[in-house]
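One example copied in:
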Amino acid sequence: MNRGVWVGRRQVLIASLAIALPCRAFAQDFPARPVRIVVPFAPGGGNDVFARHLAASMSEVLKQQVIVENRAGAGGTIGSDIVAKAKPDGYTLLLGHTGTLAINPSLYPRLPYDAKNAFVAVGPLASAPLVLVVPSASRIGSVADLIAAAKAAPGKLTFASSGSGTGGHLAGKLLEQAVGLSLVHVPYRGTAPALNDLVGGQVDMMFSVIPPAMPQVEGGRLRALAVTGARRSERLPQVPTVAEGGIPNYESTLAYGLVAPNGTPPEVLKTLADAMSASLASTKLREAFRQEGADPMTGSAKEFESLMEAESRKYGNLIREAGIKVE
């Protein structure tokens, strides 16, 4: 071999090793400082609660502080954008879910980041169904009653949601699509005011996240007709699924997971994924999730990415067919 060519190749090899070795050392030392989980919603909601339970457990596993930072706004896109543009070193993560990862790319046509390529999954966290509730004074006592009432008076029954494009809104649209109903959507600025008006009889029904609806159900002010998951909720074991209520294959759940900026080193992702798995094996964490009406999820990062891709197709089609838009 020509000596000049060989020397040139050796210099390239040395340069490559000089780059690779610090990266490998960095990955082996990870985490050397606190890890940040960005929640793209205000404190107190499901995303925030799940993130704080996970952060506390992962802190113990990693022997390093894991902190939660709320960066709310624009349906979760502000916080998501922060993580999408963060340094891909594993120190800035996103608590993502079906809304931010699968729905928003179709709901917001001009996101400030490349939704398809911005993130890489660390792993799945939890899956939470919604609960379909009506006022206790309502004559609707089951999903079958609801379908009959809606068909008898098209465009008359109203359903509340915490806002346009939210999980509750799309769950109602899925119901319309599945049965051929015509319902009137009434969006609110949050779950609490929507539930208050539902209790007062200003609206006919709502697909709500489970925890805030539970006090009203247990207090007898609301009646739970069904849950939207593939199986019954442990918080409401006596309440059937929508599918059991007469709409086969109906399912509308929110899946939660941890994602990192694309380009995060594989070794760092593995460290984080292992810490998540160890945390999810904790009886304390699993029980905390179940109290929030959620089921802990198992599976790989690739499986979570595949789930989000399938959910993106499902809700993207629904958003286009229903002409759903946000202001």
